[in-house]
Amino acid sequence: MNFSVSEENYIKSIYHLQQQTATVTTNSLANELRTKPASVTDMLKKLQTKQLVEYEKYRGFKLNATGNKIALGIVRRHRLWEFFLVNKLGFEWDKVHAIAEELEHVSSMELIKKLDAFLNFPQTDPHGDPIPDTNGKITVIKQLSLADIAVKKNVVVSSVSNQSPEMLEMLKHYHIGIGTSLKVNKHFTFDGSVEIKVVQQNPCVISEQVAKNIFVHHD
Amino acid sequence: MNFSVSEENYIKSIYHLQQQTATVTTNSLANELRTKPASVTDMLKKLQTKQLVEYEKYRGFKLNATGNKIALGIVRRHRLWEFFLVNKLGFEWDKVHAIAEELEHVSSMELIKKLDAFLNFPQTDPHGDPIPDTNGKITVIKQLSLADIAVKKNVVVSSVSNQSPEMLEMLKHYHIGIGTSLKVNKHFTFDGSVEIKVVQQNPCVISEQVAKNIFVHHD
DNA sequence: CATTTTTTTTAGATTTACCTAAATTTAAAT
DNA sequence: ATTTAAATTTAGGTAAATCTAAAAAAAATG
Question: How many CA atoms lie within 13 Å of B13's alpha carbon, on the beta-carbon side?
């Protein structure tokens, strides 16, 4: 089956919201899509008749198996394009989201297959998020945010969950990117801020808000 | 100003039809876009209020200077993407048109600028058609079709005007591509067919219809 | 637990890009 | 120069995706 750009955006947003809460509300989706709740209700009826969501009036909704697979296809396209934009065209990683948002809707199977090969079958996008495979299988790596990491452990940054230009500009300032090695010196219980030591950099303090968005794994 | 995908498609099609006839008719545009004449009239009123076309009721229309510049921007994007698809992703040149048709509407200046640099500033697309520069300047190369070439002159294929899969499949069979050297052995006046000799191939006869679509320049 | 607040849905409009069918204008043909 | 044919436009309508305002349902609160 074929989907409109609008339908694909709804499916993708439901998918992303489900990473936080198993069932998604009308308001939260309207907020995510910068649209109005009434519009969400309209579209959800449509997605329901197309058998992509489980939806009960006033009770929220979630993608069913079919919807999930379609969402993963969109996510795959988005992340492959982001990889292309950063690693081939030389974009900064805080500038690619909006462009990938357009490219992801280009609907050729063959294109994505060849793009994947051209990029050498990357496993993660420039923010460290895993790229689903052709069958919609996604390798979720268990990861902890810097807010939850014990002091003195050497860790490697594996992904950054907030991809806003503001956040990514700040990371650049701290010399933090995917693959950066660092350790936590201290957790300040007063405000949750964290002192970290990035290799070859002076120690610095980051706010709790920042720490919660930086995910790491042990090396 | 910003244009919808539909508006862009109309602008691009008017541009292409103007290569043949200075002024374009409602029917020919409807035919090109596989839509109905009434829809063309609707859209043309819109393009007129947006000051992109000169349009007089019942008299046909053409792009004005602004419209032309926008058309050349779209053509530029289309041809850069075609170059990318063939020379980077390894598509056959008869498979790229439909995909480039989608990619051309992705609306980031920065994307096209960086894509152009990544491709090393190509001058022509895979069919030999020139790629307009950033300012909408296009270098039109004076070229003759095989139907108009004198016998025994060595020529090089510079472009192919019909990009249908059927045509391009046939060219592959004759071992003809952009840059191929060949000469005309004979013009048959009976049906306009042409015997040609492609280097390292046996002589063969192509129909007038094919000959008229293959453009060459002297080497 | 009744009531206020919040969330969600319905009802009815709007915009864009189409369409069909009928009317109008232009072009062609006898 | 009429008449016929073809091309174009108008009129009115549809589907997709929005919206606002009002109604209905669920959740929160005193």
Answer: 23
C-alpha torsion A70→A75→A77→A82, nearest 10: 170
Sorted by sequence, the CB contacts under 8 Å of residue B190 that are 6+ apart come out as none
Asked if residue A44 keeps its beta carbon closer than 7 A to nucleic acid strand C, the reply is yes
**A102: which chain B residues are within 8 Å (Cβ-Cβ)?**
105-108
Residues forming a β-bridge with B62: B54
Question: In DSSP terms, which residues pair with A159 in a beta bridge?
Answer: A215
Q: Which CATH superfamily is domain A144-218 in?
A: Ferrous iron transport protein A (FeoA) (2.30.30.90)
Residue whose structure tokens are 């100003």: B1
Q: What is the pLDDT of residues B123-170, one digit of tens each?
A: 999 999 999 999 999 988 778 899 999 999 999 999 998 888 888 888
Q: Spell out where B75-187 has E strands.
A: 144-145, 154-160, 181-187
Tokens 């043309």 found at: B44
pLDDT of residue A165: 81
Q: What is the DSSP letter of A24?
A: B
Instruction: For residues A37-62, give the mean pLDDT.
Output: 96
Residue type, B15: Y
In DSSP terms, which residues pair with A24 in a beta bridge?
A: A61
Q: Please name the nucleotide lying closest to A44, CA to C1'.
A: C9
Count the alpha carbons within 13 Å of B3 in the hemisphere toward its beta carbon: 22
Are residues B81 and B103 in contact, defined by beta-carbon separation less than 8 angstroms? Answer: yes
- The angle, 0 to 180 degrees and rounded to 10, between the axes of the packed helices A5-18 and A37-49 is 100
Domain boundaries, chain A: 5-63, 144-218
CB atoms within 10 A of CB B117: 11
Q: Within chain B, what is the greatest distance between any pair of CA atoms?
A: 57
- The reply to whether the CB atom of residue B105 sits less than 7 A from any atom in nucleic acid chain C is no
Q: What is the dihedral of CA B142, B147, B152, B157, to 10 degrees?
A: 50
Q: What does the CA dihedral A119, A120, A124, A128 come to, rounded to 10 degrees?
A: -70
**CATH dotted code for A5-63:** 1.10.10.10
